[in-house]
Write a structure and sequence with these properties.
single chain, alpha/beta, 18 strands, 42% helix
């Protein structure tokens, strides 16, 4: 029996869809989702929804959330979805929904230009400094310690002349013209949001005019806190009915027990398939050489002593990196190896010396110098606290070394995130988790109780059964067999020939991609583009614009690639994307789970990522094509059905002849001149490989 909340949400959604530009079409899955979300919010329950491509899930959760009259935070994993919500969905709902509401987008502090740092780098030529405060706003009172006074002359612990002229060593490396351009933009922008710049700034210039949560002293302690763009964004969010954030920022809010985001009554996690990994990353502690270099620049901007104290901190990152390299991709347990323990103790002593030097900065300095000193103290203290955490990890965390050889990272991550989510999210407010690729059984890993109705699958409006085929090359050897590599390349050659190009070939490693390219480029009469040969967007545009082109790519192309139409008629996947068996964090989690670890950890991860890759095929209702998995385990392993269950309901086959015939029929429909191999180069196509 339908509840009043569900009925109201369904009726409102129908009106909203009817008002879509060009006239919207009713989508049964979207209506089912909206009703379920409304019921969950009315009953103060959680809901997990798998909403396939084309469902329109954003309206499916936004409409009932707005109608609930509860402040809602929507957390997304990608910028593309944030932009869609902010530029399209929310403004549209404001216009057509019979329910007034306000909304705001809130980002991390480093996304906004810092008025204080900008003033230190590019002094204002006159008039009011940049910032979002209204005309006539009174300046912030001078910090404790008396009114502003001229900077003290250089001394051993006083601010240096370099500290008065440059900002933390960053402005010296930035292009002065670019800094001036940023200053002009800051004087006119209403938000200070980096995304609104007409051109992407260099990392160096933006770092010189922005700050991070580790460094920022807060509005009350900042000389220009009353004109802070980040604080203005927080104020807008605090009064909004719907707040859009990225999932990383939401993880920081959970880690800080609610210190980052405004109070809210409902949480929506979109793209929830990455929730576990993002929360694990945001609650982790990381110690890197970059952090020591950053603190060193902060110190150089405030301390006159550019000798042992500042140089010692700046060089500490190199000392620690050298000690970490032998332990890359390894888990560390107490007691730590002697050399690493010694390096950690040595770099800690350097930070303590810097902390003592900062305490000697006199109070009778100008506001800008004082602000720099506060930033330096905060960054130094934060790094010291993280060093202390990694030296003595507890049983609930995993300490390991990751990253490239030239920049290893010492990371302390939680063994699982279930307790954190259970304590700080599920117990406090109803939450809706949604994605097109959620795997069954994800609830327990996230701290949600296991229930028979844990996952609501509302399907997709696309007719996968009629328009798409899932082919598994079950006759191939398994990937562990030495014969598999050559057999997989031959299988790929036959499929690409049948498709006539028009293929996104996805690989689980660069090695596999390069091997296939080397073997197939001389053999196939159409261009094979490869990841790394052009910028990502340029590759996608060229692939989408040329029917005969193939695009070979690795893991970063398994998500976020949107190529509707006949240019993408075949997606091939070389092998099931299981996580690395030697990943230190996952190794620890497997040991924690015990005998069922493979099914509890590895299979869901592989299923989710495979579903992301498969999802590149059908992006519009008229798309037709095939997915070919060259790993026979999908069809033959006992866990295969669990993985297939996460995929769209396509017609399935193990017969290569069947899928080849299907691909040729698509070519005949889209290309009435006939298959490419039957046409002469003078007909308008250049024979031979390109790319």
């Amino acid at each position: 029996m339908a509840t009043a909340a569900a009925t109201r949400a369904s009726a409102a959604l129908a009106r909203v869809v009817a008002a879509l530009p060009g006239g919207g079409e009713a989508r049964p899955g979207q209506d089912v989702m909206a009703r379920a979300v409304a019921d969950a919010l009315a009953g103060h329950r959680h809901l997990v929804v798998r909403a396939g491509t084309g469902t329109g899930k954003t309206l499916g959760y936004l409409v009932p959330a707005v109608l609930s009259h509860r402040r809602t935070v929507v957390a997304t994993a990608t910028r593309a979805l944030q932009d869609q919500l902010a530029a399209k969905d929310l403004p549209f709902l404001q216009d057509v929904l019979d329910q007034p509401f306000s909304w705001a987008v809130l980002k991390g502090r480093s996304n906004y230009v810092c008025v204080q740092r900008l003033a230190e780098v590019v002094p204002s030529p006159g008039g009011a400094p940049p910032g979002p405060s209204a005309p006539g706003a009174r300046p912030a009172p001078a910090p404790s310690g008396g009114p502003p006074s001229p900077a003290a002359p250089p001394g051993r612990h006083g601010p240096s002349r370099a500290g008065q002229l440059a900002l933390d060593g960053l402005a010296e490396r930035a292009d002065p013209d670019e800094l001036a351009s940023l200053a002009r933009w800051a004087a006119t922008t209403a938000t200070g949001d980096r995304a609104e710049l007409p051109a992407e700034p260099s990392d160096t210039a933006w770092a010189a005019v922005s700050t991070t949560s580790r460094d920022c002293p807060g509005a009350a302690r900042c000389p220009r806190g009353d004109r802070c763009f980040a604080e203005a964004a927080r104020a807008r969010a605090a009064s909004a009915d719907v707040v859009v954030v990225n999932l990383h920022l939401y993880g920081l809010d959970l880690a800080s027990d609610g210190a980052v985001l405004p109070d809210h009554e409902v949480t929506v996690i979109d793209e929830a398939h990455v929730l576990e990994d993002v929360i694990s990353a945001t609650t982790a502690v990381e110690v890197t050489s970059h952090r020591f270099a950053h603190v060193g620049r902060l110190l150089r901007g405030i301390l006159a002593d550019t000798g042992d104290t500042v140089t010692g901190v700046a060089d500490a990152g190199t000392v620690l990196s050298s000690a970490l390299v032998p332990h890359r991709d390894q888990r560390l347990t107490a007691p730590l190896p002697d050399a690493l323990a010694g390096a950690l103790a040595a770099v800690r002593r350097r930070l303590v010396a810097a902390q003592e030097a900062l305490r000697g900065v006199p109070d009778d300095v100008g506001d800008d110098v004082r602000a720099r000193a506060v930033r330096a103290r905060q960054a130094t203290t934060a790094l010291l606290e993280d060093l202390d955490a990694v030296v003595a990890p507890d049983d609930a965390h995993v300490l390991f070394v990751t990253g490239p050889p030239h920049a290893p990272v010492l990371r302390l991550a939680p063994l699982d995130v279930a307790d954190l989510l259970r304590e700080r999210l599920w117990s406090r407010r109803p939450a809706v988790l949604t994605s097109a690729t959620l795997a069954p059984g994800s609830g327990p890993r996230l701290g949600l109780p296991q229930r028979a109705d844990e996952l609501l699958d509302v399907g997709s409006p696309f007719d996968y059964g009629a328009n798409a085929v899932l082919y598994c090359a079950a006759h191939l050897p398994r990937p562990g067999d030495p014969r598999w590599e050559a057999a997989a390349v031959e299988e790929l050659a036959a499929l690409l020939a049948a498709a006539g190009g028009r293929t996104l070939a996805l690989f689980t490693s660069y090695r596999a991609m390069d091997r296939a390219l080397e073997a197939l480029r001389p053999r196939l009469p159409f261009p094979l583009l490869a990841q790394g040969e052009l910028p990502k967007q340029a590759l996608v545009e060229r692939f989408a614009g040329d029917l005969d082109t193939c695009l070979f790519a690795t893991m970063s192309f398994w998500q976020g690639i949107d190529v509707p139409g006949p240019s993408l008629s075949l997606v091939t996947i070389d092998r099931l994307p299981f996580p690395r068996p030697d990943d230190p964090l996952l190794q620890a989690r497997r040991q924690h789970v015990g005998a069922g670890a493979f099914l509890a950890i590895d299979v869901p991860r592989a299923a989710t990522l495979l579903a992301q890759g498969v999802g590149r095929l059908v992006r519009a209702g008229t798309d037709r094509g095939a997915v070919a998995v060259l790993d026979p385990r999908l069809a033959t392993a006992r866990y295969g059905p669990k993985i297939v269950a996460t995929l769209p309901r396509m017609r399935r086959t193990r017969d290569r002849a069947e899928v080849e015939a299907f691909l040729r029929s698509l070519r005949a429909h889209e290309d009435p001149e006939g298959p490419r191999e039957d046409r002469h180069p003078e007909d308008g196509d250049a024979a031979g490989p390109r790319g």
